[in-house]
Design brief:
mainly beta, 4-stranded antiparallel beta sheet, 11 strands, 49% strand
Length: 124
């Protein structure tokens, strides 16, 4: 049974940093493209960043470029998202997702497995 579990969210002041982690079980992480999504109250879920199976290719939403860094450690079956210079508009539930599909994508429909989310709140 595949399980994907996020951690690392919390409350941080604007300008601060957080590191999110996503640990997967029941699958071999290197077989999967991985991504981070987020959803703020009243808004649609949006792609934040994705990473290829061995980490050689990454992609970021414009809102994340230059501030967020996605990485993975396949040996630990873990995905990361380092978030710096956080802004109040980054406040959202952050989700980890996995797919065996054909590439790194920021489209939620491409992903088969999802975690329950971790809340990130950035105060001004």
């Amino acid at each position: 049974q595949v399980q994907v579990v996020e951690s690392g969210g919390g409350l941080v002041q604007a300008g601060g940093s957080l590191r999110l982690s996503c640990t997967a079980s029941g699958l071999t992480l290197e077989d999967y493209y991985m991504a981070w999504f987020r959803q703020a109250p009243g808004k649609e879920r949006e792609g934040v960043s994705c990473i290829s199976r061995y980490g050689t290719l990454t992609n970021y939403a414009d809102t994340a470029k230059g501030r967020f860094t996605i990485s993975r450690d396949n040996a630990k079956n873990t995905l990361y998202l380092n978030m710096n210079s956080l802004k109040p508009e980054d406040t959202a539930e952050y989700y980890c997702a996995a797919t065996r599909g054909d590439g790194c994508s920021l489209l939620s429909s491409r992903y088969n497995f999802w975690g329950q989310g971790t809340q990130v709140t950035v105060s001004s």
